[in-house]
Known about the structure:
The structure holds two protein chains of two kinds.
Chain A: H1 3-24, H2 28-31, H3 33-41, H4 48-71, H5 76-100, H6 120-143
Chain B: H1 2-25, H2 40-47, E1 50-52, H3 54-57, E2 63-66, H4 70-75, E3 82-83, H5 93-102, E4 106-109, H6 117-127, E5 133-136, H7 139-145
Parallel strand pairs in B: 1-5, 2-3, 2-4, 4-5
Amino acid sequence: MTRDQKIYRFAHWLACFIVAATFLSGYHKLLRPDDFALAVYRFHLLPDVWVNPVAIYLPWLEVGVAFCLLFVPRVRVAALWIALALLVLFTGGIAVNLIRGTAFGCGCFGASPAAKPMEWMNVARNGALVLLVFLALYGKRKSAG
Amino acid sequence: MGTTLKRAGMILLVSGVVAVVANTVHPRRIPWVQSWSNHVEARAREAGVRVMPLSVALEARARFVDARPREEFERGRIPAALSVPLGEWEDAFALLADLVESNGPMVLYCGNRDCDDALLLALEIQTFGGTNLFLYSDGFEAWEEHGGPVER
């Protein structure tokens, strides 16, 4: 393996680690599904019937993706593509609500009622995470030669 | 690409199975389908009452109106809140009418996220012209729990 390939591999691992850590830091959604369902409802983007299934499924999908990014190298690229899709969906949902005007937080990392309302900084943060996912995918491709 | 798609499908599927099992055994499990249109916040939106969470209520410069029963109000309240228990709102009609006349923002609250006394009071206030109405949906319990100032 050349020096460049080692650097690309390190960038790939680091980006995967940061994305996984970000997804895992939303663990409160697993502990309080009722609060997370309310957060999903407050986006006003889904029909009633989809709110709870999405609130039940999404946190486990995030954990599944994070687990694969950290511990299952064989499926890391697939997990990165799912992470990318999730981040695009989350960012779109936040942007739509910011344009509409909302007083509520995004519920991304905590369900406290004292959490600050969502803001464009949330979109910027997710944009940075999307770039990290692309970096991880690029690093994987380049490190493979 | 085909392999990546298959692997992504496996992650989606396994996560789904884990989610189903977890929600079955979770002490705080939620129903798979819930009528969100009956939720107090949905009813407020439908009625044109704007909803605010604790983070916004803590910063609000508005007149708070407490819709809880008088004895709960006496035990603790948001500072300078006006007590208008839902069942006795007609007794406070003159005060409420003055507030409506001034067109200043009114923030109504009750005990917690599940109560609807504050919303029902807002609907009564709308009948005599109240438009600048907000529902503080997290209620007094969250206010007190998260360190909001309390008057006793």
